Amino acid sequence: MPSEFQHCLEQIKVLKCKDIQDIKKEIINELLQVYANNTTLFLTIIKRGGFPTYQLREKEALDTIIEDFFDQCTGLNRDELYKIFSELYDRNKGINLLKEIRDTLVQFKDQSTKTPTYTPSPYISLPPISSPPIELPIYLREEEIEFPTSVPEREPGKNTILDLEIYGKLEEYLKNEQWKEADLETMEILIEIADSIESPNQLMKDRDVITWLELKDIDKIPDEALKTIDKLWVKYSKGHFGFSVQAKIWTERECQGKQGEFNFIIYQNKFAKSIGWYDGRKWINRYDNFDFSGDAKRGHLPSLSFPNQKIREIMWSRWKETFERFFPRLFHL
After folding, report:
1. Is the peptide bond before 302 cis (omega within 30 degrees of 0)?
2. For the residues 118-147, what does the mean pLDDT come to?
3. Residue range 74-102: average pLDDT?
4. Rounded CA gap, 79 and 82, in Å?
5. Which terminus of the chain has fewer CB atoms gathered within 10 Å of its CB, N or C?
6. End-to-end C-alpha distance for the chain, whole angstroms
7. pLDDT(127) > 50
8. Residue 146 CA: distances (Å) to CA of 47, 137, 174, 213
């Protein structure tokens, strides 16, 4: 009887008309491109998904580690596999076969819930199932979880978006080339605007605790606000910093990204390296490690990193998700 993982690969084999070994090889090659210089990050991601990394030969070459990982997946159940491949795809959304594995495992979970007495044959050809994107949880250590709390309601009546005074402090910092203060003020403005736009059943957030934007908060921020912020950055940096500058870098020869189309491999190995967020081995993980001088790489700021205000650390997964959510809109500023 095939394992859960083999069963999953059999389904993808039928849908993709590819040999299972070719499917594995394609995934391994794409993972090698992403983690060629950062084996530790790969191990950290699968460990967060629940994979027992102590069973891997961690001192071996990365391709050997990934092959061992796939071999050991055959001994895991569907829930364990789902968590691991959800975490992997969540961090590598440019690798479509990871999504195929995750979504196939979702189908298995649904089938076992709806028809517990019947197990479909792995050899039946099934058409692709079209479904909306699935919001996946980010698995955090207990000490990393921060909970929203209720706070008193804001004073109503003031339209923060149209209130040009909200940008006054940012403009002053930029005029004085206080790039660090301007970057922090940019994130503060975005939070203030998002919080000023009411949503049904909105729970007010304690901003002493929650110092980042959730994805639904980002969606509330109008393009007019992003345009105003971008114009100030571009004006006072003389075209060196700004959201539109970052969008331009994405499509230039060095990155060769497509306009408005996010690709993780390009994001990490080309874009982030070209603007100084990633050095080929590790990402900036503390806010004070950004380059806040006028000699910083073009497009280095604004960072949109939303650091923890107490310890100044940056949670990489949240930073990446924030940039990815803003990303398509940067091309229309």
Report:
1. yes
2. 43
3. 85
4. 5
5. N
6. 56
7. no
8. 21, 14, 32, 13
Distance (Å, whole) CA 177 – CA 292: 9
Identity at 176, one-letter amino acid code: N
pLDDT in tens, 156-202: 334 444 456 789 999 999 999 999 999 999 999 998 888 887 554 45
pLDDT at residue 139 in the model? 42
For residue 248, which of 229, 232, 225, 230 has the smallest C-alpha distance? 230
How many CA atoms are closer than 13 Å to the CA of 200, on its beta-carbon side?
A: 0
- Block residue for tokens 């027992």: 52
Other CB atoms within 10 Å distance of the CB of residue 233 = 25
Written as six digits, the tokens of 261 are 């189309």
Q: Do the Cβ atoms of 64 and 72 come closer than 8 Å?
A: no
In sequence order, what are the residues at sequence separation of 6 or more whose Cβ sits closer than 8 angstroms to the Cβ of residue 310?
A: none
Mean pLDDT, rounded, for 132-158? 41
Print the SS3 string covering the chain.
Answer: CCCHHHHHHHHHHHHHCCCHHHHHHHHHHHHHHHHCCCHHHHHHHHHHCCCCHHHCCCCCCHHHHHHHHHHHHCCCCHHHHHHHHHHHHHHCCCCHHHHHHHHHHHHHHHHHHHCCCCCCCCCCCCCCCCCCCCCCCCCCCHHHCCCCCCCCCCCCCCCCCCCHHHHHHHHHHHHCCCHHHHHHHHHHHHHHHHHHCCCCCCCCCCCCCCCCCCHHHHHHCCHHHHHHHHHHHHHHHCCCCCHHHHHHHHHCCCCCCCCCCCCHHHHHHHHHHHHCCECCCCECCEHHHCCCCCCCCCCCCCCCCCCCCCCCECCHHHHHHHHHHHHHHHHHC
% of the chain surpassing 90 pLDDT? 38
Whether the pTM exceeds 0.90: the reply is: no
177, 294 contact by CB (below 8 A): yes
Which of 125-129, 238-242, 247-251, 325-329 has the lowest average pLDDT? 125-129
